[in-house]
Here is the input.
Amino acid sequence: MLRFSKIQGLGNDFLVIDGRHLAPEEADGSAPLGLDAATVQRLCDRRFGVGGDGVILALPPREGGELRMRIFNADGSEPEMCGNGIRCLARFLADQEGAAPGRTWQVETLAGRIVPELRPEGLIRVDMGPPFLDPAAVPTNLPIGPAGLPQGELEVEGHWLTVAAAGMGNPHVVLPVDDVAAIDLEHLGPLLENHDAFPARTNVHVVQVLAPDHLVMRVWERGAGPTLACGTGACATLVACHRLGLSAGRARIDLPGGPLEIEWDGAEGPVFMSGPAEVVFEGVLAPGPAPIAPAQPSAPPAAAGEPAGPAATEAIDCAAACVSGCVRPEACPSAAARAAVAALLEQRSLDELVTIASDSFESRTRARFERDAGFPG
Here is the structure.
C-alpha cells in the first residue's frame, strides 16, 4: 500500500511518492517500490489509473544532498530531470515539513544538484544550474553556430526547419515561429523528438516572441507527448532565444498551463525558474492487477489415436469476460491480484484506508494554512 500526493505545476501533473525510507538497493533498482514501467503506465493512464504526466519518487540521498529525485514519464521511461516536477516535489516536501518561506532543498537528480526554494508568495523558485550548450552534452549532432549554441537546419518530411538546441540536464530543441497556434505540434513533435540529430531523443518546443520579455511556447515532451507545461523546456527556450537575440535574459514565458518566470545572465551562470505547484488530492494506491499473459498460438489438433496435448492459454479480459463469475478458475490470471487485495482488506478495513488518506490530507492542508497565515508552530 503506497500513499501518494497528486500535485500539478501549470497543469503538468505528477504522482509524488515518499520513498526516503528505502534501502539503497531498493531505491536504486529498476522498479523502486514495485514501480516498473508497466505499473507507471497504468497509474498515469487517465481512464484506468490515477492519471498524470509522470511519477516522482523522493529517495534517500547518495551524494551529500538532502534527498534524491527519480522521475518516470507516463510511458515508463526515466528522464534526467523535470522542472515542473521538481517544483511539485518541493511543494510535497514543504507540506510534509510545514516549511516556511525561504526553505531550500538540496535535491540530487540525474542532471546534477538542483535547489528549489519556497517563496513567500507561494511560488517555487528553482536554481536549475547552468545550461548545457556543448553539442555532446545536450546531446545533439547539431554544430555550434554563430550564436554560441547548437543550431542549424533540420529536414523534416522535405521541409527545412531552423532550430536551436540546449540542454538542462535533458535535451531540448527550440523552433522559433511566427504563430505557435498554427503549428501542428501533434504531428511535428514526434518527428523532431526522434530525429537523427538527437541520439537520446529530445523535448520539442515551438516559441513565439511577443516582446523581448514576453514569450509564448508550446511543448512536446519526450516520453509524454503534448503537455501543458515543461519547466526545463521553458528554461532551454529562454536560453536559446536570448542567445539568438530574440529575447532579454529575463522573460515571462506563457505555456498552455500558465506562465513561468525565467532568468539567465547569458553567460555561464545558472538559470532560475519561478512558478506555482499545487496539491490536487492525496490517496492510497491499492495493489494493481496481475499482468495478463499474451495469447499463445493454439496447439494443433491431436492426430487420431494420440492423446491431446495441453490446451494453450489464451489471454482474457477479466473485467469483460468474468462479469458473471470467473471463467477460468483453474488458471485465473487475476488470482494473485485478488489475493493481494484480500490480504490488504484483512489488514485494513475500507474505513481505515479512507481515514488514513483523509487524515493525511487534512493534516497537510492544516499545516499549509497555518504556514501561509503565519500562525506559530
In short: The radius of gyration is 24 Å. Confidence is low (pLDDT under 50) at residues 290-313. The chain has three domains: 2-129+279-285, 135-269, 318-350.
